[in-house]
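Could you help me review a protein record that somebody else here produced? What it holds is a sequence and that sequence's fold in token form. I have pasted the whole thing underneath without changing anything:
=====
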Amino acid sequence: MGSGPRYRMPLRRRHEGKTDYRRRLRLIKSGKTRAVVRISNKNTKIQFVIYKSEGDHIVLTVTSKHLEDFDWSGCRSNMPSGYLVGYLAGKKALESGIEEAVLDIGMKHPQPRGKIFSVLKGLVEAGMDIPHDPSILPDESRTKGEHIGEPTVKEFEKVKKKLEAF
């Protein structure tokens, strides 16, 4: 560990590997609501966050656990469930008056056509205005779960119809 009169300890959340302050500042300066996407080993979570001087204000939270209300019984952290959570979050955001946002992926490294961008595809197809490059979105076959198996595709189609009627 560094020492001496000129050594400056990094900020705590940067030191812990939790926050990239430069990226956060750029997102906040846009003045738009942030669509914060976090994917764990078991769940996918989307939060719509507005910056305020006293701290971030979470307007809406949607997790993959909410898919159980629409009869989703598959894995809650794979690509089809990510798309469905994004679609549901986009619908709920539009209901609550959030029409545009900026994607905030945190400290994750962006992998084109990955899980995070399947969530983005769901948000965009729900009707939200989120700036992105269409080449990073996954193929339709992967968002449906054809690479996983036929039961997942059938369940995906069933849940998507219920979400469209929502």
